[in-house]
Amino acid sequence: MPTRTELAVAVALALLACAPAFAADVVAPAHPLDDPAAVKAAFAARIGHPVHVLTFSFGEHYADAIVQNDAAPDEFDRFEMAPGQPMKEGQPQKSGSVDCRKQIAFADVDLAVGARLLGEARAIAAANGYSKPENVELGADVFCNDFGWRARLTSEASSDAFLEIVWTPNGASPKARRMNNDGWAKVDMKTLAAGGANVATVPPKNEPAPTPGDGRTRDFTQGIEADLARVEATVGAPLAFKHISVDKAQLSVDVFPANSKKRVATWIVASDGGIRLWREDDTIPFDCNKPFAAGDVPIAQLPAMIAGAPALIPPMAAGSVRNVHIYRSGLCGAPHVFIEVEDERGYGNVEYDNRGKLVRAEVQ
Amino acid sequence: MRTRRLLFAVVVAFSTIAVAADAPPASDFAWPNLADFLKQLIAKIGSPVKVYKLEIDGDGKVDLWIQVRDKPDLVDSYEYDHGVVSPPIPVRFEHYPSVAAVDHHVIELTTIDFQRLPSMLATAKSKLGLPDARVSTIALERGDSSGFLTFSDIPIWTFSLSTPRHDGRVELSLDGKVLDADKD
């Protein structure tokens, strides 16, 4: 006794034989999730020839598939479906844009499974405080692994929340993982079903609140001492610098936390004086992680150094300063000031040592 | 007088690119009127013209980088679109240009046979097996061919073509010999 799905596929295969005659009249079913066999039959009729499927996205409002022509393996097309609407011809895809070629024969795609998994994903989303997913997608992950059905859950309440559930193409062996501050963490499916992985349990990022601007517009090439003092007050400890970057509109400092050389935090001061922690990362092993203090470099001379830099490079006297970096030179030597100059023809570099002595001034 | 003679020679040499009656089978590419462009350019800046780089885009707009005659360490760009030549646009390089570097890179305009372009395009399409391909860009610059045989710092025409399903690139020497062809 054939099932409803098998009958629909048989109809679809029969349609394939006379596809050219019907192609212009293929209309998608009005309620795709209620009749996945009809969706598959519509795709089969619209495609009109044997194909393999690389991706198939399926929901009640929209479905699309990227397929490879079995008779011409370098031909890839995208077919789209909107409920109750005539299906358009496939859109050719650039062969070079198809990075992952994991695939499944069209005949083996079971959209009834897709509809069931979308229901499961929605139940999990509701139980755990995620937004209702619009669709599930059959395909591989971004690394071209794990070909199967995939639901991606996000949350309007938390932009950091992200949960992914993956099933095999026949809807078996579900596995889930969610993003947290330290990367991906596996989540047990029973825990998900019981609502034990609520969005609220995603640990919030431990970031200090930004300091709002003070209304005064700065040009950091005119001096940074006052704003370094403000950053120090925000951090709450003397600044142990790895790198200072300056341009007209932004001051950025990479600093080590107190008593640690294993982490480095980047603080940014905007031109309105607003201060925020942009990111915090592990330091790179064997990189120069020896801090320097503001007193180790001629910070007070910085405006004069910047103003005079273009004139020090003969062909670039009419140039302007692009940005300034202060960091330890060479193999973790003394901190130097590196001024990048530009004009309409190219770039140049001016370097001062930690005592304010000119080291070099030359075109790049 | 010398400039006038050169101008006449250049115009005669390139006039076929605009009105070539005996050119290879026409493609759907709207070739720019290079004869008009170069005539206007030489009238403006004189000759000789030393080409750093030439690029024609899919709409037939031309961007020509040439060595500045009285400041030979510098390069200016001139754009040509629908019969209009732009004022010189300073070209900024990542490494500050020098006379030696620019001298080494430029190609004498008189050594470029623009009449070959339509047949080169036909060759490129044939080599890629994409007879209906459209032009993305056609570029000329001195460089190393990425083909199996490496030619060092020679002028290379690069035809970048595309169809709805494929992108391809063919490199040819000034005399139309195929150096490399690549399709994805």
Tertiary shape of chain B:
globular
Q: Provide the β-strand percentage band of chain B.
A: 25-35%
- Largest β-sheet summary of chain B: 10 strands, antiparallel
Strand content of chain A: 25-35%
Number of strands of chain A: 18
Helical content class of chain A: 10-25%
Largest binding interface between chains:
A-B, 19 and 15 residues
Which oligomeric form is depicted?
A: heterodimer
Structural class of chain A: alpha+beta
- If helices are DSSP runs of H or I spanning 4 or more residues, what is the number of helices of chain A? 7
Alpha carbon gyration radius of chain B: 16 Å
Number of strands of chain B: 10
Query: What count of domains describes the coordinates of chain A?
Result: 3
User: Major sheet of chain A: size, sense and barrel closure?
Assistant: 10 strands, antiparallel
Please, how many domains of chain B? 1
Give a written overview of the molecule.
The complex is a heterodimer of chains A (364) and B (184). Chain A is an alpha+beta fold and 364 residues long. Helix content of chain A is 20%, strand content 31%. Chain A is built from seven helices and 18 strands. Chain A has helices spanning 4-17, 19-22, 36-47, 111-128, 189-193, 225-235, 302-308, and strands at 51-58, 63-69, 76-81, 91-93, 104-105, 136-139, 148-154, 162-167, 175-180, 183-187, 240-246, 250-256, 263-270, 275-282, 320-328, 335-342, 347-352, 358-363. In chain A, helix 1 runs parallel beside helix 3 and helix 3 packs across helix 4 (111-128). The longest helix of chain A is centred in the N-terminal third of the chain and has 18 residues, at 111-128. Residues 7-23 of chain A have low confidence and may be disordered. Chain B has one domain. In chain B, strands 1, 2, 3, 4, 5, 6, 7, 8, 9 and 10 form a ten-stranded antiparallel β-sheet that branches. Chain B has 184 residues and is of the alpha+beta class. Chain B is globular. Helix content of chain B is 27%, strand content 32%. Chains A and B meet through loops of A and loops of B.
